[in-house]
Amino acid sequence: MLTLLALAAAAHMGIPYDPPTTPIDNAVARVALSAGAPGVLTKPHVHLTSRVMIYFQAGTNTIRYPDGKVAPEHFRPGEVQWNDAMGTHTAEITAAGPVDIVHVELKSPPGMVPTVKTPAPDPDHFKVELDNNQVRVLRLNLAKGEKTRSYDARLERLLVPLTQARLKMAGAAMQLKPGEVRWLTPGTGGDENAGDTPLEAILVEFKK
Question: Given pLDDT bands bounded at 50, 70 and 90, which one contains residue 169?
């Protein structure tokens, strides 16, 4: 059965991500939540690990390096992006308002070779957003009353709802808010939209 680590993973109860928090920091990943303010230039900093980024509003993040290189990153609401480790840089967001961002900092080595084979997801309800040697990121969409087929989740996962919804996982129901983060452990089961509105969520699977 799928197991929800509710107490540890529901520490942040959804957007806006103000003030910033780090509700999850374990041996697999560090999950930081922040609301980037438009027009604010960050101090020079580095990112030592690869990251999965999930954005809740549209905008552009302009990265500037000491050698003069400029790298704008454009994003849409609900978009998922991959970032490799980055050397010293500054960042500045251009957007209509604060941008709520989930930063999933991976603790696996960039050159890791996965040893656990992940089954193909239910194509009627899951879309693969990213798939590399460190993570597989899935977008789950369920209409009212829809269910996925039963599946074998062999990896630890991060669940990030994009909509308010009532989700049943392996028969256990939970109320979800946009931007909430929950850590899921491996197990076998299926997902069901038990609410009255469409459900959309991001699942980050951590390879090992």
Answer: confident
